[in-house]
Write a structure and sequence with these properties.
single chain; 126 residues; alpha+beta; Ribosomal Protein S5, domain 2; 4 helices
Length: 126
């Protein structure tokens, strides 16, 4: 048996909390701040709303579609596990670097947590 619900709603980030349009990503890149580590780059920008929206970017340089989708799913799940601790009112974009294609889920989760903490977007505590 699965130790968690397989319903799609449980795995995804809600629609209003996603960045999907190129214009939204570009706005965060151009107007926001960034920090990086070995696996990821984080761009963030205050959005004057009471929710935090997030987007994930995985380049074709990481590999074929299967690899890119796996990396994107791991990033999305790692963020989902931390989203209750993320401060509201920001647009966030995570960019996967090449080593992320070979990284384990726990490494990606640690990378995302480190970047959010470095940017000051993470509430302390569990």
């Amino acid at each position: 048996m699965w130790p968690f619900s397989v319903r799609k709603r449980g795995f995804s980030v809600r629609k209003e909390q996603r960045l999907r349009k190129r214009r939204a990503f570009t706005g965060v890149y151009e107007g926001g701040r960034s920090c990086a580590n070995l696996l990821s780059v984080l761009y963030y920008l205050a959005n004057r709303m009471d929710i935090t929206r997030v987007g994930f970017s995985v380049s074709r340089r990481l590999g074929k579609a299967v690899v890119r989708n796996r990396v994107r799913r791991r990033y999305r799940e790692a963020y989902r596990a931390l989203r209750d601790r993320v401060l509201p009112g920001y647009d966030i974009v995570f960019i996967a670097r090449r080593p992320a294609a070979d990284a384990q889920y726990v490494e990606i989760e640690a990378s995302i947590e480190q970047l959010l903490r470095k940017a000051g977007l993470l509430r302390e505590g569990r």
